[in-house]
What we know:
The protein is mainly alpha-helical. It contains 19 helices and no strands. It has helices at residues 33-44, 47-50, 53-60, 64-88, 95-102, 105-134, 143-158, 162-192, 215-230, 235-238, 246-275, 291-297, 304-336, 354-359, 362-373, 378-407, 410-415, 425-440, 450-476. Helix 5 (95-102) packs antiparallel against helix 6, helix 6 packs across helix 15 and helix 8 (162-192) packs parallel to helix 11. Residues 1-26 have low confidence and may be disordered.
Amino acid sequence: MLEGSQPVPPITNGAQLPDAFPADQNLQRRLTQRQLTMLALGGAIGVGLFLGSSVTIRLAGPSVILSYLLGAVIAMIVAYAIAEMAVVHPVAGAFGVYAETYLNAWSGFAVRATYGLVQIIAIGAEVTAVAIYCGFWFPQVPQWVWVAGASIGLVAINALQVGSFGEFEYWFAVVKVSAIVIFIAIGGILIVGIGPKPALGLSNLVAHGGFFPFGLKGVWLALTLVLTSYMGVEVIAVTAGEASNPEKSIPRAMRTIVYRLICFYVLATIAMLAMTPWNRLGTDAAITGSPFVAAFAGVGIPYAASIMNLVVITAALSSCNADLYLTTRMLFSLSRSGYAPGWISRLSRNGVPHRALVLSTAGIVAAILLAIYAPSQAFLMLYGVAVAGMFFVWSVILLCHIRFRKSLGPEARARLPLRLAFSPYSDWIGIAALAGVTVSTFFVDGLRYAVPGFLPLLLAMSVVYWRVRRRAQEQKRP
Length: 478
C-alpha cells in the first residue's frame, strides 16, 4: 500500500481466508520486495522468450514484435487484476483461494490443481530446455544427463529456508536481466554502427518477405506462445503468503515487473531480429537451440554465442527454480484446504513444505523419460499442455476479479493502492482474447494437442474434487 493510504479491509464473503493452523505450521513471511520483484521476473523471463521465440519467429517473422505488444496488453490486465486481490487477501493459495471465495468451491480447487499441474509440467519443459542449451557445447552427451543434474541442484535450493531461496532466485534473475540489458545494448550498438563494424540498421525487419511475411494471421498465431512469455506475473499473488509487508511490496513489485517485461521483450526481440535475418532464426521444425544464441553467432563477436548460451541456461534454471517454488506452495494450499492429503502440507524445520516439494518433481521425471525416448519433441510436448492450462488459470483469475470488484464498496475500491483501469470491461476483453488464443492453438504445429491434452486432466481433477466433496459431506452426516 502506498504511504498515506488507508488499509483496505478484507472482503471474505463468509470464507475464512487466513490459515487456521499453529504458527509453526504456517508459511513464514520472509520474502522482501526486492526478492518478490526478481522472483516474478525470474518466473516470467525464461524459456518462453529464450527458446519459445524460435517458434513464434517461424509463425510471424519480424511482426512477432506486434505479438509481444498484444501479449503485453493481456498480461497487464491479468497482472493488475490479481495484484488488486492479493493486496486485500495476501494468503497462501492466492487465486485458488480467491476463486473459492468469489466463484465456487470447484473453481477454487480446479484453478489450484491446474496451476500446480501446469507448473509441474513446465518444470519438465524448463529442465529439458537446459539440456537443449547444453547440447550447443556437448552435442554427444544425452539430454537426460543434463536434465537429471540440473534437477538435483534445483530441488536442493528449494529445500532451503524461503529467505535463502529468495536470495538464490534474486541472483539468478539478476544474471538474466543484466544479460538482456547487455544484449539490447549490443544490438543497439550494432544497429546504429558504433565502433569498427558498419551499421546493421533495421533492414532485416523488412527484408525476406517484409515485416508481415505471414500477414496478421501470423501475428495472432504467434500470440499462442508469446503469451507464455508473460506467464509468471501471477507469481506475485502466490508469494503473497510469504511476503513481508504485502500491502506495500505487492503493488510496487507488480508495477515494476509488468513494465520491465514489456520493455525487455520488445527491445530484445527487435535487437535479435535486426542482428540476424528472421528466416535464419526460426526455420527448423525441431527446437535445437535459442535464437538469441544464433543471433550472436551470426554477428562475428568472439565468444558472444557461448556467453549468451550460458545466460539462457541460467534463465532456464531460474524459471525452473521459481516454478518449483510455485508448485510446492500450490500443493501446500490444496492440502490445507482439504483437497489433498494433510501430510502434504507438513513443514520442515526451516518452514518449507518439503513433502509438497518432492511431489513437485514429477515433471522432472517426465522430462527425463522424454529426454530418453523423444528428445526432439520433448519441449513442445510438455510445454503445450502447460500453455492450455495457464489460459484456463488466467481466465478464472479475471472472472474472480469481476466478482471481487462487485464485493467491494466504492470507498474500498478508491483505497486500493493499485487498480485495473476500465474494469470490468477490461476483464471481459482479456477473457475474450484468451478464448480466441486458446482456439488458435489448434492451428499451430506443436500445440495442436495442447487443449485435447489438458481437457482430460481437467476432467480427472473434477472427478477427484467431487469424490472428496462427497466424502466430506458423508462424514458430516450424523
